């Protein structure tokens, strides 16, 4: 998998899409280590500067994952290097961090307003599937540019544990990422491991890491996640110890170890159903009714 | 095509060749540090990032552990580059330790925490500046660069010069070894290196000229360190914005005119002030410093490739540029020239003329594929296999017969003497042909003296024994 | 006593070797330049004929070229 990706380009230009977990339900509660959101955000901002410093062709895009929605916070490629479009030349260009912080504040306000409409149970989880899809669509757009595009990858910084109801959507995004050879890296700042992201990095060839000391987040980001795809074949990077491959059932979204599988479309159910809800295949089998081909003697 | 890497590595070698004091002075400037960082190989960049926050020296064993066992060679290359450029300094305690250059470390830490704007301030809005549109700026840069190259080409063609000679540019070409005056006062003519230069991509050409320019700067009284610093900073300016000339030091102001002649900046004058506007060529200058830049030359100037090569050896170039026509004339036989199209064919004769002027088959093929028209650029391979194979065959046709001046030895008194002489010839690397059954061998001419002494000693020893 | 002869070693492919041999035969006796025929692909010739050979080879190559008139 990795050799196919590095065969595309032999240099270290990369386009990183960072998915930031800004879910207030997670950051609002006091974590055991006392790692606050401000510290986390600062670490991420400096990390963005670090990636953009490495090469002038590097691109960074930041997508914020809220409880109910996600939005683009920053796109380095959208800011033009030329002077076209600058009407007021006396104004100093706004610094990167100010722009991102402003946009984040607007987003959090909108997110809060939207949450009050949802039922309290559902809105505790971060919208991972939504942001993954947004990221993948954006990457497709980059890949269609006429000039040689940089190698894209997704970095997901997640705090909140997995949402079982998002299983199908997340798995679909993971497989699309695998198709476009976009590695998904995962950095978990919460307390629990995330089965989805473990599977994501395993399938797409990314790196999964849960830093033991979240206050040193920037160091982990710099050492591990700033490495571009070309250099990854030469460096020692954390390997996954084990991947939690458990699936969730399609009817109740519960994580299960054993269940029923539709023979047509392979969807998983925890209880016996009369028909498959995904493909409509009929499961009603009369005893001894099926014709079986007799082996020719 | 590795050309850019060779040339730009030469530039970085030149930077590395500066005395340590000057290099440290250079690293005091924020933008030079960034430019040097971006010029490092990818592995080295990551190492720098990792060492950025470390204050003490790190033993080299720990650094080695960062790389996988089969990547040790790349690791070593990265470490050597960093050491040469004094990005990391060696400290010897119990073992070899590396520490980041503190001057550079400070600058890079600043870069990380504060994302600065361009190096210099843009002209304030109160001065009336008519900024050229990006398209105008690109055309200006292209025109300047083409006229520079046309200097080279017009000396190559025997007809009357296409463009009036610009002596500064011609001097630079002479220094770079691209033009040669056979007689003291005659017009210079192009050399083999000159032909190869024409076929290189824009970034390599730019870097070669810049290198020559910087090495000659010392003689003209400009400090080369300052000049290198300014050139590296130029890449970080915003393309298309005006920067005041007055903000630069006096030697740099003199330099600006010559840079304008190369097309890197555009100079404009106002009522009291002068300002310069960097073009795309300047911003690509520092971009192409890194060892692995894959940029096509068409991306550099914003022009698209325009050459279509067909399997019947016909070449169609959708261009009106004199430069492109002249370059094509070097190795193709031009048949028709229309206002926007040049039609030609690759014939054995035309390619052989190119070979005899020093161009190689690989260069021709790379040139044709780099300047391919977008309609055929996606074809794999860009130049049809028939054409590229045939060009290579024509080249090897010239090398069918190899002539080597040599000395022929036979009539050896005994087999032992023959064997000894044979082994000796092999060890000094001069053996060209041997015939053990008849005791004959052929050795290179320049090693004949050595061989004669050796044989005399052998025969003397054999005579004493026998 | 070992004999040393100064000259030019030609390494080429078999057709070219035959071409050189043919060229040698066509020269008058005083101008025959081949010293030894070492094997199928190597020929040892006198030192002064290098340029003449290159010229003849070039002519031979050009004979096989046809250029369409413009």
TrEMBL record, chain A:
<protein>
    <recommendedName>
        <fullName>General transcription and DNA repair factor IIH subunit TFB4</fullName>
    </recommendedName>
</protein>
<keyword id="KW-0862">Zinc</keyword>
<keyword id="KW-0539">Nucleus</keyword>
<comment type="subunit">
    <text>Component of the 7-subunit TFIIH core complex composed of XPB, XPD, TFB1/GTF2H1, GTF2H2/P44, TFB4/GTF2H3, TFB2/GTF2H4 and TFB5/GTF2H5, which is active in NER. The core complex associates with the 3-subunit CDK-activating kinase (CAK) module composed of CYCH1/cyclin H1, CDKD and MAT1/At4g30820 to form the 10-subunit holoenzyme (holo-TFIIH) active in transcription.</text>
</comment>
<keyword id="KW-0863">Zinc-finger</keyword>
<dbReference type="InterPro" id="IPR036465">
    <property type="entry name" value="vWFA_dom_sf"/>
</dbReference>
<keyword id="KW-0234">DNA repair</keyword>
<keyword id="KW-0805">Transcription regulation</keyword>
<keyword id="KW-0479">Metal-binding</keyword>
<keyword id="KW-0227">DNA damage</keyword>
<comment type="similarity">
    <text>Belongs to the TFB4 family.</text>
</comment>
<dbReference type="Pfam" id="PF03850">
    <property type="entry name" value="Tfb4"/>
</dbReference>
<keyword id="KW-0804">Transcription</keyword>
<comment type="function">
    <text>Component of the general transcription and DNA repair factor IIH (TFIIH) core complex, which is involved in general and transcription-coupled nucleotide excision repair (NER) of damaged DNA and, when complexed to CAK, in RNA transcription by RNA polymerase II. In NER, TFIIH acts by opening DNA around the lesion to allow the excision of the damaged oligonucleotide and its replacement by a new DNA fragment. In transcription, TFIIH has an essential role in transcription initiation.</text>
</comment>
<dbReference type="InterPro" id="IPR004600">
    <property type="entry name" value="TFIIH_Tfb4/GTF2H3"/>
</dbReference>
TrEMBL record, chain B:
<keyword id="KW-0805">Transcription regulation</keyword>
<dbReference type="Pfam" id="PF03849">
    <property type="entry name" value="Tfb2"/>
</dbReference>
<comment type="function">
    <text>Component of the general transcription and DNA repair factor IIH (TFIIH) core complex which is involved in general and transcription-coupled nucleotide excision repair (NER) of damaged DNA.</text>
</comment>
<keyword id="KW-0804">Transcription</keyword>
<keyword id="KW-0234">DNA repair</keyword>
<protein>
    <recommendedName>
        <fullName>RNA polymerase II transcription factor B subunit 2</fullName>
    </recommendedName>
</protein>
<dbReference type="InterPro" id="IPR040662">
    <property type="entry name" value="Tfb2_C"/>
</dbReference>
<keyword id="KW-0539">Nucleus</keyword>
<dbReference type="InterPro" id="IPR004598">
    <property type="entry name" value="TFIIH_p52/Tfb2"/>
</dbReference>
<keyword id="KW-0227">DNA damage</keyword>
<dbReference type="Pfam" id="PF18307">
    <property type="entry name" value="Tfb2_C"/>
</dbReference>
<feature type="domain" description="Transcription factor Tfb2 C-terminal">
    <location>
        <begin position="389"/>
        <end position="456"/>
    </location>
</feature>
<comment type="similarity">
    <text>Belongs to the TFB2 family.</text>
</comment>
TrEMBL record, chain C:
<comment type="function">
    <text>In NER, TFIIH acts by opening DNA around the lesion to allow the excision of the damaged oligonucleotide and its replacement by a new DNA fragment. In transcription, TFIIH has an essential role in transcription initiation. When the pre-initiation complex (PIC) has been established, TFIIH is required for promoter opening and promoter escape.</text>
</comment>
<dbReference type="InterPro" id="IPR009400">
    <property type="entry name" value="TFIIH_TTDA/Tfb5"/>
</dbReference>
<keyword id="KW-0234">DNA repair</keyword>
<comment type="subunit">
    <text>Component of the 7-subunit TFIIH core complex.</text>
</comment>
<dbReference type="Pfam" id="PF06331">
    <property type="entry name" value="Tfb5"/>
</dbReference>
<dbReference type="InterPro" id="IPR035935">
    <property type="entry name" value="TFB5-like_sf"/>
</dbReference>
<keyword id="KW-0539">Nucleus</keyword>
<keyword id="KW-0805">Transcription regulation</keyword>
<keyword id="KW-0804">Transcription</keyword>
<comment type="similarity">
    <text>Belongs to the TFB5 family.</text>
</comment>
<keyword id="KW-0227">DNA damage</keyword>
<protein>
    <recommendedName>
        <fullName>General transcription and DNA repair factor IIH subunit TFB5</fullName>
    </recommendedName>
</protein>
